[in-house]
Amino acid sequence: MDAIILQILNGLDKGSAYALIALGLTLIFGTLGVVNFAHGALFMIGAFCAVTLSRILTLSHQVVDETRTDFLGNPMTVDVPYIHEIVGQTAGDFMIDWAVPLSILFAIPVMILIGVVMERGLIKHFYKRPHADQILVTFGLAIVLQEIIKYFYGANPIPTPAPEAFRGSFDFGAFLGMEANSIIYPYWRLVYFAFALLIVGGVFAFLRFTTFGMVVRAGMADRETVGLLGINIDKRFTIMFGIAAAVAGLAGVMYTPINSPNYHMGMDFLVLSFVVVVVGGMGSLAGAVLAGFLLGILESFASMSAVLEALPGINQIVIYLVAIIVLLTRPRGLMGRKGVMED
Q: Is the pTM of this model over 0.90?
C-alpha cells in the first residue's frame, strides 16, 4: 500500500507539470486554432525567470569587515548583497531565501509580455496557414529561444533551491495513520501539486465566471458571430495567448527546485504535453488537465522496479502507447468535442 501511495504522489507531481503546460497549449489551440510548438520554451523561460530573480537578489559587493580577521590579523573582506543595504539584512535574507515564490510576481508580467509579443509579432501571420506551417515556425522559434537561453545562462543546469522551510520531507505515512517513515515525500513537490490545482482552478473560474472569460468561450465556439456583435474578439484572444504564456511560465517557475533549470527543459516537456493534449482531446481544457494527471500517474507506476523488471523500458513509452490506443479507438480524445480529428 505504501508503494502504491508513493507512486500516486509521484504521478501527481509529474502530472501537475503536464497538466499546466497542456492547459496553456489547449487555451491557445482552442482560441486561436494554432498548434504552438514554442509552448515548451515558455515553460523554460518561466524557470529562468526564477533563476534571474535569484541572481539579482544575490548580487553583492565586497566590504571590509573589521570584526573578522585573517590568519595575519588583517580585516577580512566579505560579500554583502545589495539587497541588504536596500531593505535591511533580515528582509534581504528572507527575499533571497524565498526567491522562487517571489519570482511569480516577476514572471507574470514578463510572460504575458512575451506571449503578446509572440502572438502579435509572429503567430498572427499564420492563423490561416496549414497546421504544418504553424508547427514549423513555432518549433523554429522554440529553438531560437532555447539557444538564447543557452548563450546567456550556459549549458549546465542551474540549481535553484526551494525556501528553507520547504526543503525537508513530509511523513505522509504517519499523516495517514500508517507506520512512521513508511512514506516520506518532499514538501516542495506537495507545494507544486497544490499550486497546480490553484492555477487550474483560477483559469477555469476566470473563463466561467467573468464576462471576459464568457466572451472568450463564446468566441471559441463561434468566432464569427461574436465578431458580428461588435466585440473585438481578436484583442481578447491576444490577451488569452498572454495568459496561456503566463500559465506555462508559472509552471516553470515553481518547477525549478524540483528540476534544476537548463536550456533544453522546454523540449523535454513539449512532446509529452502534446501527447497529453491529444489524449485529453484537442480544444478540451478539462480533458487536458485530466489527461495530464492520469498520464503522470500511469508513467509513475510504469517506473516501478517490479514493472521494469517485467517490461524493461516501458516507462519511456507507456504514454505514447496510451496515445496510440486513444487515437485508434477514440480519435477526438477522452473529452474532445465530437467530430474533432474524426474526419
A: no
